[in-house]
Amino acid sequence: MIEGNSYITAVKPVYKGGKLPFLKKFFFYKEFIKKLFRTRKAVIQGHGMEPILRGSGEVIKLCETVGGRIEITGLDNIRSVQGGVVIAANHQSTLETLLFPTIMDGLKPVTFVVKKSLVTGWAFGPIMRLFNPIALDRKEPKVDLDKVMKDGTAALQEGKSVVLFPQGTRCKGFDPATFNSLAVKLAKRAGVPVIPCAVKTDFWENGKILSTIGDIYPDRTIHMAFGPAITIDGAGKKEQRQLLEFIDETYRGMA
């Protein structure tokens, strides 16, 4: 759980496990896989959300252990809204999905819109299924849209918040043209605000063979910034522009 409006690494740690990049990468993935398997086992054994929240927090510490710096800001923008919200984030790497549980812990119960393979997969499946996510086949856009509208609205009316990545896939940078209006449509349907989230997580690059296993760049700060809640009034075009402007401007300012 993160208390207050932000989490910022106090002092950037100095990694002492070797100067060669491949040693740092080996250490990072060795520790990550150990934590993933431990969390998966605990979930299968019926320990509920606690091991997921602990594991998510451990990912923050692991990133810092290899010399990474983390800046998570704007949490009061989530905290100030009563009831569920739609959180719309750009999607850059595996990292933001892993950090969301510990970010949302103590703020709001949460679920995710994800691709179906993440829910049915051996490694992450048992963990992700505990969130009762909205899983999409990504074969028929209309079917996926209807599912997000129906299941997302139901989750929001139950008081959950819904995290989705309108780009649909991981992208190196942020191009507003790739960011669809699904979050705004869902927020309008459910009668809740949408909160933009600008993400810069190229600390953890996507892999060329396995997308989850890429290079690690500890000199790149990990950023997640949540903007003010946007209430949908009318068709939603104005609110979509507001959402895009926040993410685009905030992303450009992330160093």
Word description of this protein:
The protein has 255 residues and is α/β, with parallel strands linked by helices. The chain has one domain (69-252). The chain is built from 9 helices and 8 strands. The chain has helices at residues 21-44, 50-65, 75-79, 94-104, 116-120, 125-129, 141-157, 182-190, 237-252; strands at 7-8, 70-73, 86-89, 110-115, 134-136, 161-164, 194-200, 222-226. The protein has an 8-stranded mixed β-sheet, with helices on both faces. Helix 7 (141-157) packs across helix 8. The longest helix is centred in the first third of the chain and has 24 residues, at 21-44. The protein is globular. The mean pLDDT is 92.
Low confidence ranges: none
Helix count, DSSP H or I runs of 4 or more residues: 9
User: Helix share of residues?
Assistant: 40-55%
CA-CA gap between termini:
25 Å
Give the helices and strands as they follow along the chain. Answer: EHHEHEHEHHEHEHEEH
Principal-axes shape call: globular
Quick one: biggest sheet? Answer: 8 strands, mixed
Strand order in the sheet with the most strands: 1-2-8-7-3-6-4-5
Beta-strand residue fraction: 5-15%
Number of strands: 8
Any idea what the radius of gyration is? 18 Å
Q: How many domain regions?
A: 1
* Averaged pLDDT: 92
**What is the SS-derived class?**
alpha/beta
